[in-house]
Amino acid sequence: MDIQWYPGHMTKAKRQMQEDIKLIDLIIELVDARCPRSSGNPDIDELGRNKARLVLLNKADLASEEGNRLWAAAYKEKGVSVLTVDSRNKTTLKQINGIISEACKEKIERDRRKGIKNRPIRAMVAGIPNVGKSTFINSYIGRASTKTGNKPGVTKGKQWIRVSKFLELLDTPGILWPKFEDELVGRNLAFVGSVKEEVLNVEELAVLFLDFCKEKYPGVLAERYGVEESLPSPELLVGIGEKRGCLVKNQEVSTEKAAKLIMDEFRSGRLGRMTLELPSE
C-alpha cells in the first residue's frame, strides 16, 4: 500500500516558512510520540539548521512509556532539547519555559552583549498535520487563540500569538514533504491520522494495522474485541465487524465500518498505549 499525500497548499506554506525563518530564534517542532521518526519532517530539519530547536514528543499519553523514554534519550543524545507532553494536559507543559530559555541562552547572551534587554524570543511552532500544534498553543497560553481539530489541515495560514513580554509564537500550518521514501513512514502517518482519509483505502490500512498489532502487541486485539488473533488479518477485520455490529442493511458485515472503528480506537488510545517505531529499529 503506497501512501502519499502532498496537496498544493503545503508548497505555499513551506515557502512562507522559508521567509519567516529569518525572524525566528527558536523552532518548536511537535512530533507524534507514537512515531517520532516518521512524524519528524526533514524539511523542518533543513529550514532550522542554524536555529535553536525544541522537540515536543506530543500525545505521549498514547505512546508506550518505554517508547517515550527511549525516544527522549535518543534526541538528547543528539544534543536536541526534548520534552514528552500531552498538549491537552497543562501540567505536562510546565517545564517548557525553562527549556525555551535554556535552548535560547546563546541568543539571550548575544542580546545582552549588544545592550538589548527583554527582546522577546520568537518561536515558530511547526510540525506535520494533526500532530496537535494548535491544541498545544491553546493549552500553553491558557486561552483559545487558534482553531483546533482532530483531522489534518485545520490551520490554513500563519498567525502570531503573543504569550508574554518574553515570548511570541508563530503558529504555522501542518506540512508534510513531497514524497515518503520509506513506505513504513507513510503507513505510520496514516495510522496516526496525519494523512487525509480521503486518499486512503481504510480497509487496507486497517488490515496493515492488524498485522502490526499481532506482531508487536500480541493479545491486545483478543482482549479488546474477543477475537482469535491467529486468523489472517482480512478475516480478523470481518470478525471484529461482527463482534461490534458493523453491519449494513442486509446484515452483512461492513468492513469499511469495522476498519474505521479500529483506526478510531487506536488513535484515541482505547486499544492501550502503543508506540509504532523505536530508535533502534
Break the fold down into its secondary structure elements and pairings.
Layout (H helix, E strand, L loop, with lengths): L7 H13 L5 E7 L3 H4 L2 H6 L4 E7 L6 H13 L3 E4 L11 H8 L1 H9 L7 E7 L5 H9 L17 E6 L2 E5 L11 H10 L9 H15 L3 H6 L7 H11 L11 H13 L14
Parallel strand pairs: 1-2, 1-4, 2-3, 4-6
Antiparallel strand pairs: 5-6
Characterization of this structure:
This protein is an alpha/beta fold. The chain folds into two domains: 8-171, 3-Layer(aba) Sandwich (Rossmann fold), CATH 3.40.50; 201-267, Conserved Hypothetical Protein Ylqf, Chain: A, domain 2 (Orthogonal Bundle). The chain is built from twelve helices and six strands. Strands 3-2-1-4-6-5 form a six-stranded mixed sheet, with helices on both faces. Strand 2 (52-58), helix 4 (65-77) and strand 3 (81-84) form a beta-alpha-beta unit. Helix 9 crosses helix 11 and helix 9 packs across helix 12. The chain is elongated, with a radius of gyration of 20 Å. The protein starts with 7 loop residues before the first helix and ends in a 14-residue tail after the last helix.
